[in-house]
Amino acid sequence: xxxxxxxxxxxxxxxxxxxxxxxxxxxxxxxxxxxxxxxxxxxxxxxxxxxxxxxxxxxxxxxxxxxxxxxxxxxxxxxxxxxxxxxxxxxxxxxxxxxxxxxxxxxxxxxxxxxxxxxxxxxxxxxxxxxxxxxxxxxxxxxxxxxxxxxxxxxxxxxxxxxxxxxxxxxxxxxxxxxxxxxxxxxxxxxxxxxxxxxxxxxxxxxxxxxxxxxxxxxxxxxxxxxxxxxxxxxxxxxxxxxxxxxxxxxxxxxxxxxxxxxxxxxxxxxxxxxxxxxxxxxxxxxxxxxxxxxxxxxxxxxxxxxxxxxxxxxxxxxxxxxxxxxxxxxxxxxxxxxxxxxxxxxxxxxxxxxxxxxxxxxxxxxxxxxxxxxxxxxxxxxxxxxxxxxxxxxxxxxxxxxxxxxxxxxxxxxxxxxxxxxxxxxxxxxxxxxxxxxxxxxxxxxxxxxxxxxxxxxxxxxxxxxxxxxxxxxxxxxxxxxxxxxxxxxxxxxxxxxxxxxxxxxxxxxxxxxxxxxxxxxxxxxxxxxxxxxxxxxxxxxxxxxxxxxxxxxxxx
Amino acid sequence: xxxxxxxxxxxxxxxxxxxxxxxxxxxxxxxxxxxxxxxxxxxxxxxxxxxxxxxxxxxxxxxxxxxxxxxxxxxxxxxxxxxxxxxxxxxxxxxxxxxxxxxxxxxxxxxxxxxxxxxxxxxxxxxxxxxxxxxxxxxxxxxxxxxxxxxxxxxxxxxxxxxxxxxxxxxxxxxxxxxxxxxxxxxxxxxxxxxxxxxxxxxxxxxxxxxxxxxxxxxxxxxxxxxxxxxxxxxxxxxxxxxxxxxxxxxxxxxxxxx
Lengths: 558, 259
Known about the structure:
Chain A is α+β, with helices and mostly antiparallel strands. Chain A contains 17 helices and 21 strands. Chain A has a domain at 5-30 and 344-441: Succinate dehydrogenase/fumarate reductase flavoprotein, catalytic domain (Flavocytochrome C3, Chain A, domain 1, Alpha-Beta Complex). Chain A is 33% helix and 17% strand. Helices cover 41% and strands 9% of the residues of chain B. Chain B contains eleven helices and five strands, in the order αββαβββααααααααα. In chain B, strands 2-1-5-3-4 form a five-stranded mixed sheet, covered by helices on one side. In chain B, helix 6 (158-164) crosses helix 8 (184-199). Chains A and B meet through helix 1, helix 6, helix 7, helix 8 and helix 14 of A and helix 1, helix 2, helix 8, helix 9 and helix 10 of B.
């Protein structure tokens, strides 16, 4: 639906202040940034992570006592989907050198590198190959490729400063050193990055970058990387076998504590299958579909944090899961587009964030958590300068028409064709009308603990991408997640292949760890019928549910 | 505060009005009648009606191409197509899901191909069967001129296909509707990869930077950062020079350290 008459009236205020704001931008005058030492202050007061009562301690498992959001603890303190005693581990459906769990950017990269290292690969994924948050990442991929003005040294500083100096230094170092190599790998595979005619890669700023280091492919960088990776994975059918609509519901360990594969669940035939693997890569992505604190999300349908549960039950510790990333600019209007990601690139290209009075209230390139907190502050009763939406929410304006005035008419359509098409469906022309935005649940900053070779505390289990934690510390910068999935996906794949060749003696497959975990739940006094992993979110209609008299739900699934 | 309260009241008022306006309309999901709110997309309408989606649901934001679907409006014989997460229901709409479409994808080694019409048509010889009916273009939810890029493919203009097909979400609706049984979107990803791999000039600065890293140029400075304490890191972070937003490509920092 197009903007309501009420909103159109409020938009006039933005139009009135626009010329002066454009002039300021042209002169290079920016709104002053929040000083580094004051960042914690605004975060503590306004960022959802710090809202009191939003966390509780986990009562079981290797990170017992760690306090994280209720939605994740609910799943950690839940029972397995399967009765471990009912699974016959000797009936093996698939044998493979390397099992990759997850078909997004990290899983695809791992599969390719494992295959190139000589391993036979089985890739199991919950939805279709390539259905993942990687596909939805719009902004870009950071890498210090510009000689003469940038280097991995400055990339390192940006990453660790953006993460409030909490990041794992070894992981950051690996990320920034591997970044240019990954760009070279993607370029060689035929990823269509935006370039100048001489082949120089185009780059731009992202929130918290000191140099223009974010490479992009139009406004669909993630989709371009994912469709290239997916195409390449499918070009190797002899050595990479893909099983879709078959999420992993439990890892299989050996009596010696090694990872020996997983139990897959076929979502359509409702059968469970045993996979024996010499090495396993867990690349299941994030958890935005848990809707922490009731927030809307930019995430993919399948982002339910499954890998966290699997890894945790197998004994891998969690870290940085107490911090969740809210993207500063998710759509709040129209209702059909709620939660949809509006890329930071709009701000990078010159669009201001302005309040109901048409005033700029924040520097547009703060790290994401600080930027999000500033928007929430503006919409809070303390400031009272949010723009009211027809559904009773508040947002602020993202003044996209400024880009046309700064960079010439037609720029918005050329640089953001996808968003133009999308808003045109609602009869909104974003080259002439601003967008209404509010922070949206976007990224799981933390996850399972890994070292720089993607190994976990469980031998034979490698973890990569959003399901891991440490590289981004407490806050990820824009353009570092596409980088994370490709850098660490490759490393995990290569190391998993190497591990699969090792002649170390392997134990007997068992689900003893699941039985132990159940016992621990009981001992801790956790009485629940909750089931995890969730696999799919539940958006069914409660009225319909009441009439499903003979239907059983196991968690969210019928 | 007072202003905010006033605004909140205004929002509530408009919100309520919207709820009153929200009317239920009949739709037919695979022939069965359901009443759903008229503001919902096809995807949300199916969930409202009691379906739990497994296939045909992805990013829910119009970019992943998982939810291409067919529908028909009353008083029309025409079968229309769209993305279920983007198309809003209309009264008496007949709709379904396309859970899967068995499209052909050629298998190839990108290194061994050349970016020519000859190599493309070796992998997808059927492209010459295009009858020029334009159904592919009409089916495309991304407004891509599919028939035009097919014409370019037939002419051997790989770069042209890459450029025109760039926004493709690979939902496959073009192929599902094509009377000549072509697989436009899979041929297009081949052309984009051929263009980026073999036609677009390689980034020299990237190749040189990778060489520098492989020679170990940054190992020592990064070792120093890894072992630096937080106080020093904070100082270095605050002192780092910021490239101005409006700077041109050839901007250089004042300090050449650690470059």
